[in-house]
Design goal:
Layout lengths: L6 E5 L4 H12 L3 E6 L2 H13 L4 E5 L5 H15 L4 E4 L16 H29 L3 E8 L10 H21 L4 E8 L5 H11 L4 H4 L10 H12 L10 E4 L9
Parallel strand pairs: 1-2, 1-4, 2-3, 4-5, 5-6, 6-7
Helix pairs in contact: 1-8, 3-4, 4-5
Length: about 260
Amino acid sequence: MTMQGKVALVAGGSSGIGLATAHAFARRGASVVIAARNVQRGAAALFALRAAGAEAEFMQTDLSVHDEVVVLVRNVVERYSRLDFAVNSAATDEVGLGLTADLSEADYDRAMALNLKSTWLCMKYELQQMIAQGEGGAIVNISSVNGLGGCPGAGTYAAAKAAVIAFAKSAAIEYAARRIRVNALVAGAYDTPLLRRAIEQYAKGDTSAYTTRIPLGRIGRPEEAAESAVWLCSDESSYVTGNALIVDGGMTSWAR
């Protein structure tokens, strides 16, 4: 599976599944742009990519801000002349936590901006660029098993991740005739900063609270999710669009 000469944008690519996905693209020869808010993490991620031999750039972007996303996609094209693949991985669990009736409107707005609006804005301008190129493309939205049902204490996160799937399926239908494939990757429990915070907050550091619910009996490695995301962008998945690919070690198999 080679991607030599292709260009991939990973929005939210400075850590976790996003960073692992950037490395997976780079191993296949693609030029990679990672975009994120945090400059320090972005610089560290870029250093690691380049140390591994990748052709890569970091572009600081608040993905929930319209004008910054416009500039991001423009800069990607100015740097590499095209955009072939996009993985939208930006998310946070640091806002919008609490019982549904206790959340403020500001909590809701911020959580939706960071977990949903960011994905929609990225899709909007990624799609426009791929349409302008006229050569097709592939987009993957990173969702979560929390988006398949309820998530007590994090209803805004669950709602946003459900909508991320719906946006992917809707766009898949809208742009199939233009040879742009859009899918969602529904991630389970992976060893990322987001999951580590959840384990500390809700399970007092006890990972067995998660592993006992996973038939494969372990937390996933971000690289395992990344391989699935890159496969969804590759020619090997050329007949796959509008799909929500659940990659969770069997965690939700009982409910599907």
